């Protein structure tokens, strides 16, 4: 990780802090003197300073936050997780035994590292996970909608809502298997040549290449499914439709 873009010194001005925050797009900077961590500043701290009539040319030594949470490079996994439990903490600087800043870890980076099954090392380059996201858009479909809740190179997780009396296409996939758990509602599953009734708690395994379809058999309530896909490709073009109520190919 290039941590220089997150760093200012005690001699910096408020204007320089604003410029640094604008450049790093992270909403914070770390105040360092002779490589040692002295404090933090967020965009909120800067706004409050300006409201209290500080000038852009003022030095930041009077407005830095000297009491802050941080991680030591030797901290245990339990300590790391515990510090991120509060919603107020979105990032933690990491220091060595001499209190020198060596790294920065954000809450989102921690979640992605763990969900991808990586071994957590506080010296690793966490910036490689900055392009990941844990929050995805909702995708509307004629039968309802789905939301991807996690996506990595080998797994995709979704929550699927099927509207009353609607059904997905009869389809199969070449490049992924699927594991479905019904969270709420009632439905009917077509898998291969067989059909089975579903209710909350039902589990379905769909191998690669297996024809499948799910229908919401209720006229009133949505059918909600938690889906986990395992494979090496999760594009929509790996949906091969055999039959579809809505005329899609």
Write the layout of secondary structure elements.
Elements lengths: L6 E2 L5 H11 L3 E6 L2 E7 H9 L19 E2 L4 H7 L7 E5 L5 E6 H9 L22 E4 L2 E8 L3 E8 L7 E3 L3 E9 L1 E6 L2 E6 L3 E4 L5 E5 L6 E9 L8 E4 L6
Parallel strand pairs: 1-2, 4-5
Antiparallel strand pairs: 2-3, 5-6, 7-8, 8-9, 9-16, 10-17, 11-14, 11-16, 12-13, 12-15
Structural shape = elongated
Write down the CATH class of the largest domain. Alpha Beta
User: What is the CATH architecture descriptor of the largest domain?
Assistant: Roll
Q: What count of structural domains?
A: 2
Total number of β-strand segments? 17
The strand line-up of the biggest sheet is: 7-8-9-16-11-14
Summarize the amount of helix as a percent range: 10-25%
Low-confidence stretches: none
Q: Roughly what is the average pLDDT, rounded to an integer?
A: 93
Following the backbone from N to C, one meets helices and strands in this order, namely EHEEHEHEEHEEEEEEEEEEE
- What kind of sheet is the major sheet? 6 strands, antiparallel
Termini Cα gap:
45 Å
- Radius of gyration, rounded? 25 Å
CATH superfamily of the largest domain: CBS-domain
Class inferred from helices and paired strands? mainly beta
CATH topology of the largest domain: CBS-domain
* Count of DSSP-assigned helices: 4
Explain what the structure shows.
With 249 residues, this protein is mainly β. The protein has two domains: 3-129, CBS-domain; 138-243, Jelly Rolls (Sandwich), CATH 2.60.120. The protein is built from four helices and 17 strands. The strands form five sheets. The chain has a six-stranded antiparallel β-sheet with strand order 7-8-9-16-11-14, with no helix packed on it. A three-stranded mixed β-sheet has the order 1-2-3. Strands 4-5-6 form a three-stranded mixed β-sheet. Strand 1 (7-8), helix 1 (14-24) and strand 2 (28-33) form a beta-alpha-beta unit. It is elongated, with a radius of gyration of 25 Å.
């Amino acid at each position: 990780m290039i941590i220089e873009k997150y760093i200012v010194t005690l001699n910096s001005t408020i204007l320089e802090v604003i410029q640094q925050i604008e450049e790093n797009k992270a909403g914070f900077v770390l105040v360092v003197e002779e490589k040692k961590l002295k404090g933090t500043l967020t965009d909120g701290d800067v706004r409050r300073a300006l409201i209290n009539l500080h000038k852009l040319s003022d030095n930041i030594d009077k407005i830095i936050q000297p009491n802050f949470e941080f991680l030591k490079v030797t901290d245990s996994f339990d300590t790391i997780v515990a510090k991120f439990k509060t919603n107020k903490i979105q990032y933690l600087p990491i220091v060595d035994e001499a209190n020198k800043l060596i790294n920065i870890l954000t809450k989102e980076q921690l979640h992605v590292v763990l969900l991808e099954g990586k071994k957590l090392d506080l010296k690793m380059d966490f910036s490689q996970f900055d392009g990941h996201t844990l929050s995805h858009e909702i995708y509307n479909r004629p039968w309802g909608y789905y939301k991807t809740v996690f996506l990595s190179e080998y797994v995709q997780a979704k929550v699927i809502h099927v509207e009353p009396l609607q059904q997905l296409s009869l389809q199969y996939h070449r490049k992924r298997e699927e594991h479905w758990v019904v969270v709420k509602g009632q439905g009917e599953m077509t898998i291969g040549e067989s059909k089975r009734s579903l209710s909350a708690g039902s589990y379905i395994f769909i191998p690669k290449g297996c024809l499948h379809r799910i229908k919401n058999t209720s006229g009133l309530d949505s059918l909600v499914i938690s889906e986990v896909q395992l494979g090496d490709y999760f594009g929509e073009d790996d949906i091969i439709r055999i039959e579809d109520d809505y005329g899609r190919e």
